[in-house]
Amino acid sequence: MYHAIKDELGEEVEYVWHDATSLEGFDAILLPGGFSYGDYLRTGAIARFSNVMKEVVKAAKAGKPVLGVCNGFQILLEVGLLPGAMRRNESLKFICKPVELRVENNETMYTNAYQHGETIQIPVAHGEGNYYCDDETLNRLKENKQIVFTYTNNPNGSLEDIAGIMNEQGNVLGMMPHPERAVDELLGGADGVKLFQSIVKQWRDSHVVKA
Amino acid sequence: MYKVKVYVTLRESVLDPQGTAVVHSLHSLNYQAVSDVRIGKYMELTVEKSDRDVEEVVKELCEKILANTVIEDYRYEIEECVAQ
């Protein structure tokens, strides 16, 4: 994630430790994948109580972009910034491969550089990406166009092929696939770059006054 | 102090892929009488006596962290015991 921003995007980026008490000065927060606390208990369940998460919630409420990828998505679900929960993959297997996603909503700060309905190749790497929410929540997600990415060929059994959702305000996005692993042809594809470019573009459009 | 047993399982409405796999294997072993398996977690907590009501504390920590109530149900048993 760090290198995607630094080397591919050429933007400033810094790691923040989990017990940091401030996120002052950052324009966007990116929660990467991994296995925080070994996924003991449940994915993201323990990390959601780490110190820095209070600040992440604060940043999200203030409207800053907060992107959670994979374990980052699971943490956003546990902390309640996004609705729903993750179950184990239907196959019970850890899945690690490139998958095809459809951009369901390109009018977001994360997807404005994509076309609506465009299909892109992004890798997944998870054992628990089987998204679930109740019917009421699902209807709300659909009504507000909060479903941002779907799988064209569902790898994990997730509800309605959901691969990524955002909050109602549109500044918090969680997705299981890893866009940061698809930022250079050397990595097998660069379809993820536009996601990060979208965030930067949105920020410039709304913060930089044109001379 | 108290010995607390906490059981966490996926809610009835949520498909349990592990349970489904086990049901299939039981059927293939000719245990057709088994119609459903739910796999969950079992946790044992030792809780010291405090000013707060133990049941209130257990309920709170189940809701807060031990179970994700979006997909999981929990139940608990509390047993008072004497420290050895």
Oligomer: heterodimer
Computed CA radius of gyration of chain B, to the nearest angstrom: 17 Å
CATH class of chain A equals: Alpha Beta
CATH class of chain B: Alpha Beta
The whole-number mean of residue pLDDT values of chain A reads: 95
General shape of chain A: globular
Query: How many domains is the backbone of chain A divided into?
Result: 1
CATH architecture of chain B: 2-Layer Sandwich
Mean pLDDT of chain B: 94
Strand runs of chain A, count: 9
Computed CA radius of gyration of chain A, to the nearest angstrom: 16 Å
What is the H/E order of chain A?
A: HEHEHEEEEHEEEH
Instruction: Say what the CATH topology of chain A is.
Output: Rossmann fold
Number of helical stretches of at least 4 residues of chain B = 2
Shape annotation of chain B: elongated
CATH superfamily of chain A: Class I glutamine amidotransferase (GATase) domain
Structure description:
The complex is a heterodimer of chains A (211) and B (84). Chain A has 211 residues and is an alpha+beta fold. Chain A has a single domain, classed as Class I glutamine amidotransferase (GATase) domain (Rossmann fold, 3-Layer(aba) Sandwich). Chain A contains five helices and nine strands; from the N terminus they run αβαβαββββαβββα. Chain A has a seven-stranded mixed β-sheet with strand order 1-2-9-8-7-4-5. In chain A, strands 3-6 form a two-stranded antiparallel sheet. In chain A, a hairpin with a 5-residue loop joins strand 8 and strand 9. Chain A is globular and about 50 Å long. Chain A starts with a helix and ends with a helix. The mean pLDDT of chain A is 95. Chain B is of the alpha+beta class. Chain B has a single domain, classed as Phosphoribosylformylglycinamidine synthase subunit PurS (Mth169, Chain: A). Helices cover 30% and strands 31% of the residues of chain B. Chain B is built from two helices and three strands; from the N terminus they run E-H-E-H-E. In chain B, strands 2-1-3 form a three-stranded antiparallel β-sheet, with helices on one face. The longest helix of chain B is centred in the last third of the chain and has 13 residues. Chains A and B meet through loops of A and helix 1 of B.
